[in-house]
Design brief:
alpha+beta, Alpha-Beta Plaits
Amino acid sequence: MKQYFKDTWDGIWTVLIGMKITFKHLFTPAVTIQYPDVKVKLPDRVRNRLYVNIDDCIGCDQCSRACPVSCIEIETVKGVPGEDLGTTSNGKKKALWVTKFNIDFAKCCYCQLCVFPCPTECIYMTDIYEFSEYDRNNFVYNFSALTKEEINQKKTNFEKFQAEKEAQKAAAAAKPKTDTPPAAPN
């Protein structure tokens, strides 16, 4: 009988200790963040989604070469003479049309190695950290500002320019030289 009362008292004592902790936390303010409505402030230098300011991109391909997982694809077309491609925000004149600038975030390891070699600082990490998708193909982000028609036009213009340049070279090579000095008398 004595053991029965001791076991009963131990059970009640254990419940009281547990309830002490419960009552202590019942009257303290909550630290739970209501996530979709309230977001945590991120620390500086946090690595999240990449963003490319395509107006500042000169198509140098430095970021793509620095990427350890090859998630960045860049294609460019040279501008023809007389065509104004614009300048970057730091005053550097553009020489290439960026026809394709894709980043596959399903492959990206968020290492930030692509950010540092960029000479115009057009690629950088943002504070956006939530971007789930149901389809893996939706993780490929296209940052190019040109439409398919504009891309085809730029490629065609460059091909025409190259053809004209080759034709001028061929015409110059086929032209006989008339400026040869007269032969010296023997």
